[in-house]
Design a protein that fits this description.
The complex is a heterodimer of chains A (294) and B (218).
Chain A: E1 2-4, H1 15-19, E2 24-25, E3 42-45, E4 48-51, H2 59-72, E5 78-82, H3 87-97, E6 103-109, H4 122-132, E7 137-141, H5 148-157, E8 162-165, E9 169-171, E10 188-191, H6 196-209, E11 214-216, H7 223-232, E12 236-239, H8 241-245, H9 249-264, H10 278-283
Parallel strand pairs in A: 1-12, 2-5, 5-6, 6-7, 7-8, 8-11, 11-12
Antiparallel strand pairs in A: 3-4, 4-10, 9-10
Helix pairs in contact in A: 3-4, 4-5, 5-6, 6-7, 7-9
Chain B: E1 2-14, E2 17-23, E3 35-38, E4 47-50, E5 58-63, H1 68-74, E6 81-88, E7 99-104, H2 111-117, E8 123-127, E9 142-146, E10 160-164, H3 167-176, E11 181-183, E12 199-202, E13 205-208, H4 209-212, E14 215-217
Parallel strand pairs in B: 7-8, 7-10, 8-9, 10-11
Antiparallel strand pairs in B: 1-2, 1-6, 2-5, 3-4, 3-6, 11-14, 12-13
Classes of the chains: A alpha/beta (294), B mainly beta (218).
Chain lengths: 294, 218
């Protein structure tokens, strides 16, 4: 499945882009409306970009009455990204989403780098949310932890159904002339190609640590990038910064995936799944016998 | 909104600026004041540029090489190709009586196309040097001033003002003529409402300039 990374697409202003994905992930919704951080909010870095939007969103009340009915008309699965500053806030929003059939899944944003972090651990937030909803829960984790595999295991034990890997990492750029921070809040979240090796390592570690399905994201620009994430252990892949530069990226990336698979003699992405892992390398074949040793 | 890979027809120097002329392909030139996202060679993000001129079969963008992206765009040569997305945002309202175009520096970029659409109304333009003021030749019927004189000295506040320029100039124009149509600028990653990077304060709330603007009426 090809998705967008939360915060990298507004399906209401660009519905045709959302429809080119297999599911649309909303911008993070919080209990109360948030204007977000003051501008300047974005800056280009050497091989990526920084953002510090600060979870701008209409709040859960207006999301449910204004946004969600319009999103439902797109007729693609809607994943709602949920944020908060305490486990109870995540639980409250999950509870209010639970009865909405148009919500296919909930992504718990426990790792936004641009706002104060919740004081509770990811596992505690997942546990609270689990009690509040029957919807599939995907925990979006940051790679900025000593052992992401351990965080993934804790999230799994707390009741998560899947993992979204990874959120942006804190970064800083300075204005060329003044040598002062480019962004008003100084530090922002780094995305784009610079993030890809970090994200791949996180997917790789979490695949080995848990059996949960993973949405891999971080610097996905091409079909080859999709293959890398799937080989590392992602069941699904999300586009983030690539959508900013090219709203046609989903169809382009799908076409590139087909070419990459064909060139390697694979029939579909299932053939590539988790092939980067040593236990498969030692066997030298996938369950359907198509794995090719390099 | 549509994205196409187009060819550079020519890259012409106009004072310190570059007029980048590209084939139009199947793109609609849009309304003056609307903008396009131009792929900047070697950069991750495209750059927002308003249409300067739209002769048959072409789109032309006036670019000030002030950073790595704009310098890369100014370095393009005839035959080079780049992806262009647009037209985006809201342009100027053209049903005005007695229009006066007001421009400052690289902010004159949308005025040649706007002038054409409005039947060559009077224009007043301000620049920081005679070299920069060479770009005034792109705008018909323009009165020009160079610093230390300010363009606001030439503004008739009773005219229907359509302005583009640096923020202090736009604020000064708005103080003189509260109903002026003003084209603003903000850093943008996407240009189509996805990134929320171009937020500006409107009616007490932060809103996306690419969706609500870039032309705003007070």
């Amino acid at each position: 499945m090809l998705l967008n990374a939360s915060g990298c697409l507004d399906a209401l202003t660009a519905p045709e882009v959302a429809r080119s994905l297999d599911a649309f992930v909303t911008k993070t919704v919080t209990p109360l409306p948030r204007d977000g951080n003051p501008p300047v909010r974005i800056a280009e870095a050497e091989v990526g970009m920084l953002n510090s939007i600060g979870l701008a969103n209409p709040g859960i009340d207006r999301f449910l009455t204004g946004n969600l009915p319009r999103l439902a008309k797109l007729e693609i699965p809607i994943w709602v990204s949920v944020g908060g500053f305490a486990a109870e806030e995540y639980a409250e929003i999950c509870s209010r989403l639970d009865d909405h059939a148009e919500v296919a899944a909930i992504e718990l944003n426990v790792s936004c780098p641009n706002v104060e972090s919740p004081s509770e651990s990811a596992a505690r937030i997942v546990a609270s949310a689990r009690l509040a909803t029957r919807k599939p829960l995907w925990a979006k984790l940051s790679a900025a932890v000593p052992d992401i595999g351990a965080v993934a295991c804790a999230a799994c034990e707390a009741g998560a159904d899947g993992l979204s890997l990874v959120n942006t990492l804190r970064g800083l750029t300075l204005d060329a002339r003044t040598l002062r921070p480019s962004l008003a809040p100084a530090v922002g979240g780094l995305s784009g190609p610079a993030l890809k090796p970090v994200a791949l390592a996180a997917v790789y570690a979490c695949y080995q640590a848990t059996s949960m399905p993973i949405v891999g994201m971080g610097g996905v620009q091409t079909g080859r990038d999709v293959l890398d994430f799937v080989a590392a252990g992602a069941r699904h892949v999300a586009l983030g910064t690539a959508l900013f530069a090219d709203p046609d990226a989903p169809s382009r990336v799908r076409a590139e995936v087909a070419v990459e698979l064909d060139a390697r003699g694979y029939s579909d992405l299932d053939d590539v799944y988790a092939t980067a892992h040593p236990e498969l390398l030692s066997i030298g074949t996938t369950t359907n016998g198509k794995y090719l040793l390099k | 909104m549509r994205r196409e890979r187009l060819s550079v027809v020519a890259s012409e120097r106009v004072g310190p600026y570059t007029l980048l002329r590209v084939t139009r392909g199947g793109l609609d030139p849009g309304i003056p004041g609307q903008f396009f996202m131009l792929e900047a060679p070697g950069r991750l993000l495209p750059r927002p540029m308003s249409v300067c001129l739209a002769p048959p079969g072409e789109l032309a963008f006036l670019i000030d090489p002030i950073g790595p992206g704009t310098r890369a765009l100014c370095g393009l040569e005839g035959g080079d190709r780049l992806a262009i997305l647009g037209p985006l945002g809201n342009g100027f309202q053209l049903d005005v009586e007695r229009p006066l175009l007001v421009g400052g520096g690289i902010g004159i970029a949308p005025l040649p196309y706007l002038s054409e659409a409005l039947g060559r109304p009077p224009a007043v333009l301000g620049f920081r040097s005679d070299w920069h003021a060479e770009a005034a030749g792109l705008v018909p019927d323009a009165e020009v001033c160079v610093e230390p004189r300010l363009v606001t000295e030439l503004v008739d506040p009773d005219a229907a003002i359509l302005a583009c320029g640096p923020e202090p100039m736009l604020e000064a124009v708005r103080a003189l003529a509260p109903t002026a149509q003003l084209a603003w600028e903000a850093p943008m990653a996407c240009g189509y409402g996805a990134c929320y990077g171009c937020a500006v304060e409107l009616d007490g709330a932060l809103k996306r300039l690419c969706v609500e603007g870039p032309v705003l009426c007070s």
